[in-house]
Every structure is written in C-alpha cells, then in structure tokens.
Write a structure and sequence with these properties.
Blueprint: H1 6-18, H2 23-42, H3 69-80, H4 90-102, H5 106-111, E1 117-118, E2 123-126, E3 129-133, E4 137-141, E5 149-152, H6 155-168, H7 189-203, H8 214-225, H9 230-237, H10 242-249, H11 253-273, H12 293-296, H13 314-326
Antiparallel strand pairs: 1-2, 2-5, 3-4
Length: 328
C-alpha cells in the first residue's frame, strides 16, 4: 500500500473521467480511496495519505448520445463477436443490453450479485457500487448517491439472465457477481471499456464518441419513449431528485408533449363529430330535492300553476302566489 502515491491517485481519477464517468462518480471513488488510506495511515502502514489535496478537474461536458433498441442489439452483437476473432463473449453482449434497458451505472452493474436478483418479481436490488483503487484492486461501496433502489427488469432480460446464471453455474450462489471479466474476476470498468467496449463501438459502426455511460442515457430515452413520466424515470435511474432528471432529460419530453397535443386534438374532433340529440331543458334529468332541471333554473312550462300561459321566471310565480294568498 505504501507504493501508492499522489501521482497514482491523480492518474486513476483522470482515467475515470476520460472513460466517460461523471466527475461526481470520480469524487465518490476518491472519497472511498481516501477513507481506505486514512485507515492505513492510522495503522502505520503509510506515512501520509496521498489522496489529501488531490482535486478532480472539471470534465468537459460531453454531448449525450442515445441509441435505438436496434442499435443496442447491434452493439451487443459486436461486443459478443469482436472483429479481432476473439470470443465469443455472450456475457458481455448481455451486459451491454442489460445496461441499456435498466439504466444502471457501470459500478452498480459490476457490483451486482446473484442474491440481489429476483427474476420471478423481475427486479434487481441496487445497493452497492464497485470502484477501482489504483494498485489495490476493487472496492465495494455504496451507490452514487448512497441510496438503495429496486430496478425493474424487462421480461426478455429475465430469460437471458436465467440462462446466463445457469450456464455459469452460479444461479444458486447468492454471493457471486452476475457479470465478471472474461477471466471470471470482478469486472474492472476501465479494462472492459478499453479492451471490449470501444472496439465494439467501432465494429458496430456507431458514433465513436459513444461512452458506456451513454447506455444509461439510452435507457432514459427508451423509458420516455415508452411513456414513462419524469418521476418514473427519476426513480428508475436512482437520481437524488426529480430536478436532476429534469435538468438532464427534459428535452426528451418534447416529443411526448407533441403526442399529447395530438391526442387532445383527437378528443376534440371526436366530441364535434358525436351526434347531439335535440332536447329542451325540461328533458334533462331531475336532481336532488325532487326539482326538475327547469325548476332549478327558475323556468316553468306552459302548464305551470296560477294560469300562466308562457314560460316565466320563478320570481313571478312566487309573486302570483303571494297575491293569491292575500285574497284568501
């Protein structure tokens, strides 16, 4: 542990942001690393904590890229059967599809254990995230915002996951990682990103700027396209609040708003085209109190009492009643 120095820490954090991970994710990894090394410092294993004073440079804001469901399938096939001739890697193909249809973060997927999957309920419990610590290996910690959540799983993914777990012989091993490296070890995102993901992006003929994190954006777009509300997307992705979701994905709702106005137009046209039966106010149903609708509106018909031959206001009726009563 004493061989980890400030330069190593800076390079580790720079690699994280360069791979497309958000500065907030790198900050969380830095916090975990700082705690680990602080413990080592207290135990006398190191003389100083190399994380102290290391700052995370503001990363350039990347343009979000979104894949269609067809493009997700193309990317999954490319990573499963790379042009290099290696493989096949069916597990990595499933990983890409899983990421694009659940929106889970890279670290959350890497830390996902079999025991967190409930395939009957079609849910996965997200409680941990895996981060790489330079020269130390992987560290399992809390999720990005320290919150737990339950993420729904599409039916077709349930079938693929069940087959995947059975083929690996880990279906009943609750502590095993669902996804691992091609050597069966904990999935190191940076290695996976460089060796498998980026080459597959090129093989699939997709935008070379595509990052793994764009699969999370893709999940959001697919959900919104399927009719999910902003609140549903926020909870699904595990954002700290709906405001975060709105800031990132509000522009994707413009198409859904257009669809809603189209539906309003259809409702209006239907109302105009519906037949309107001729009816007088006296034909309307009576309401509480036994009065007809006409009586409630102060209108009586030709056969009204007191010899009135035309529709008159109820005030006039009362006036005639008082006059007749005064003559009794």
């Amino acid at each position: 542990m004493s061989i980890v120095d400030t330069t190593d820490v800076k390079q580790f954090l720079a690699d994280m942001t360069a791979s497309g991970l958000r500065p907030a994710t790198a900050a969380k990894a830095r916090a975990v690393l700082r705690l680990v090394l602080a413990t080592a410092l207290e135990g006398g294993a190191i003389r100083s904590n190399p994380v102290v004073g290391v700052r995370i440079a503001r990363a350039e804001r990347h343009e979000m890229l979104f894949l269609s469901a067809t493009e997700v399938a193309t990317l999954a096939a490319a990573i499963e059967h790379p042009s290099s001739g290696r493989g096949p890697y069916p597990e990595l193909g499933l990983l890409v599809t899983f990421a694009a249809f659940t929106g889970m973060r890279a670290g959350e997927i890497a830390a996902m254990r079999v025991g967190r999957l409930d395939l009957l309920a079609r849910r996965v419990e997200v409680v941990e995230s895996l981060a790489e610590v330079p020269k130390m290996g992987v560290v399992i910690g809390p999720t990005n915002n320290w919150n737990k959540r339950s993420v729904p799983i599409a039916g077709f993914l349930v079938d693929h996951l069940a087959h995947h777990l059975e083929s690996k012989g880990i279906a009943r091993d609750s502590g095993s990682f669902v996804f691992t490296s091609t050597q069966g070890k904990p999935l190191r995102h940076l290695n996976f990103y460089k060796r498998h993901f980026k080459p597959a992006v090129i093989d699939a003929g997709l935008d070379p700027r595509l990052r793994f994190h764009d699969l999370r954006h893709t999940a959001a777009a697919l959900l919104i396209g399927a009719g999910a509300s902003l609140l549903e997307v926020s909870r699904w992705l595990g954002h700290s609040g709906i405001g975060v979701t709105g800031d990132v994905y509000a522009h994707l709702f413009s198409d859904s708003q257009d669809a809603l106005t189209d539906r309003l137009d259809a409702l209006h046209r239907t109302a105009l085209e519906a037949p309107s039966p001729a009816a007088t106010i006296s034909d309307l149903p009576s309401s509480a109190g036994g009065l007809s609708r006409a009586e409630q509106h102060g209108v009586v018909e030709r056969d009204a009492p007191f010899g009135l031959s035309a529709q008159v206001g109820i005030g006039h009726v009362f006036a005639h009643a008082v006059h007749d009563a005064s003559r009794l």
